[in-house]
Amino acid sequence: MNNSFIMIGVQSMDASVDFFKNILDFQVEGNQKPNNDIELTFLKNADNFMIELVYRTDIPVPDNKDSSTSIMFRHIDLEAKKEVLVNNDIKYISAALPNGTKFLKFQDPNNVNIVLYE
Known about the structure:
CATH architecture: Roll
Number of domains: 1
CATH superfamily: 2,3-Dihydroxybiphenyl 1,2-Dioxygenase, domain 1
Shape: globular
CATH topology: 2,3-Dihydroxybiphenyl 1,2-Dioxygenase, domain 1
Structural class: alpha/beta
CATH class: Alpha Beta
Distance between the termini: 30 Å
Strand order of the largest sheet: 1-4-3-2
Order of helices and strands: EHEEEEHEEE
Number of strands: 8
Radius of gyration: 15 Å
Number of helices: 2
Helix content: 10-25%
């Protein structure tokens, strides 16, 4: 694998894959199951940004609820994405910075903060 990527421990592989495909327009690049306790799914977006989702049954379910880390993506049309979020019952915060940068902040099914900005 030649790309840099981030890894996210997930509570549900199906819910996480659906979120990244349907909300953030990622495509599945591959799956691996190294053993009975670990499942991996690799996703990539149009900018070639990759995410590795890791589901494990041999450790406690990850909880990112109190994390201050955010994954940030530049997005062209925040208004259209707001509609997608509303249609999928995803709560979000919408704001603008003093320099005019607009952003949407919401969470994936694993409580990982996602920020879209334009």
